[in-house]
Amino acid sequence: MSDKKLRIGILGASGYTGADLIRLLVAHPNAEIVLMTGERKAGLPIESVYPHLGGYGLPDMISINDIEWPAVDLDVVFCALPHATSQQVINGLMHSVQHSLLEELVAEGQDDLANQINTEVKIIDLSADFRLRDTETYAKWYGHEHQAPALQPQAVYGLPEIYREQIETAKLVACPGCYPTAALLALIPPLRAGVISHKDIIIDAKSGVSGAGRSLKESNLYVEVAEAMHPYGLGHHRHMPEIEQELSVASGADTVISFTPHLVPMNRGELETIYVKLNNGQTVQSLRSTLEQTYANSPFVRVLEEGIAPATRMVRGSNHCVLNVFQDRQSDRAIIVAAIDNLVKGSSGQAIQNMNLMFGLPETTGLLQAPMFP
């Protein structure tokens, strides 16, 4: 694409994922943030909510209801809103926003300008609203009917390392959840290659508190979280059907997992320890080789040297995922460990990676920050 900057809207800019989107996009050479919403922070400058984001000439936050859509010419919208809300907003965006602008320009006799307008804004959704291909499965796990079922078939699952070609031509991308991102990067290649069984997969996952969002919850207060760790969503976490959906596609068979997330007292970061059964004739080395070959040319996924255990400190603040494989004491089983930053590769960074692909930019643009340590 040309050097023209993409005009970007961020819906839900006042949340943690919205803040990381802004942090990364202000350094992106092809990005210009022209619209930000925050319902509880409407009318406020971003630095009053996140002081570290002041000084970048960003627009004040407004309410979604106050957006004059026909007057807003956007190339891409990042939707960082709660589930259900995203479906309603995106449904309206994809059916009316740019078309309304086009009609207005034609009515004013500005045909030349109208011909330059992209009539379909591209949407990158960071919520769970379009991740599940089956709308009945969505209703079962999220407790209400899908609000935009006609759009669901258009949604591309936004895991770049697996669906890169589909993302490049997509108009609506559904970014994976943070837990699924780490799990799927670890499990899809060996399942596709037949190295591991699709049965008896156990995922022990741990995430920092930012994964729970910024809303006030008693369970997320400092004294509730500090110096402790606890599991949640036992046996029924909403990321389970998302993981199972993609693993079933990879294995070609219905795949049911055991998955338990834990909250740990750190701001950001995610670590998953995954226990798998090797298929007959397969070894830990063949599992490792499969991952190495799959990600040999992937800029953000790296298999560590043998014997080195992935840790969240290796990826903090970056769009990287680090993996490694270990032999279990049971000879027919192996352990895969994956680490990501839940707010970057698990959310906002991956969303920008998808944007780059959708607009023909180098995949790494704006995402080459090295991990922060200490």
Automatic annotation (TrEMBL):
<feature type="domain" description="Semialdehyde dehydrogenase NAD-binding">
    <location>
        <begin position="7"/>
        <end position="170"/>
    </location>
</feature>
<dbReference type="GO" id="GO:0070401">
    <property type="term" value="F:NADP+ binding"/>
</dbReference>
<keyword id="KW-0963">Cytoplasm</keyword>
<protein>
    <recommendedName>
        <fullName>N-acetyl-gamma-glutamyl-phosphate reductase</fullName>
        <ecNumber>1.2.1.38</ecNumber>
    </recommendedName>
</protein>
<comment type="function">
    <text>Catalyzes the NADPH-dependent reduction of N-acetyl-5-glutamyl phosphate to yield N-acetyl-L-glutamate 5-semialdehyde.</text>
</comment>
<dbReference type="InterPro" id="IPR058924">
    <property type="entry name" value="AGPR_dimerisation_dom"/>
</dbReference>
<keyword id="KW-0521">NADP</keyword>
<dbReference type="GO" id="GO:0003942">
    <property type="term" value="F:N-acetyl-gamma-glutamyl-phosphate reductase activity"/>
</dbReference>
<dbReference type="GO" id="GO:0005737">
    <property type="term" value="C:cytoplasm"/>
</dbReference>
<dbReference type="InterPro" id="IPR000706">
    <property type="entry name" value="AGPR_type-1"/>
</dbReference>
<dbReference type="InterPro" id="IPR000534">
    <property type="entry name" value="Semialdehyde_DH_NAD-bd"/>
</dbReference>
<dbReference type="InterPro" id="IPR036291">
    <property type="entry name" value="NAD(P)-bd_dom_sf"/>
</dbReference>
<keyword id="KW-0560">Oxidoreductase</keyword>
<comment type="similarity">
    <text>Belongs to the NAGSA dehydrogenase family. Type 1 subfamily.</text>
</comment>
<dbReference type="GO" id="GO:0006526">
    <property type="term" value="P:L-arginine biosynthetic process"/>
</dbReference>
<feature type="active site">
    <location>
        <position position="178"/>
    </location>
</feature>
<dbReference type="Pfam" id="PF01118">
    <property type="entry name" value="Semialdhyde_dh"/>
</dbReference>
<dbReference type="InterPro" id="IPR023013">
    <property type="entry name" value="AGPR_AS"/>
</dbReference>
<dbReference type="GO" id="GO:0051287">
    <property type="term" value="F:NAD binding"/>
</dbReference>
<keyword id="KW-0028">Amino-acid biosynthesis</keyword>
<comment type="pathway">
    <text>Amino-acid biosynthesis; L-arginine biosynthesis; N(2)-acetyl-L-ornithine from L-glutamate: step 3/4.</text>
</comment>
<dbReference type="InterPro" id="IPR050085">
    <property type="entry name" value="AGPR"/>
</dbReference>
<dbReference type="Pfam" id="PF22698">
    <property type="entry name" value="Semialdhyde_dhC_1"/>
</dbReference>
<keyword id="KW-0055">Arginine biosynthesis</keyword>
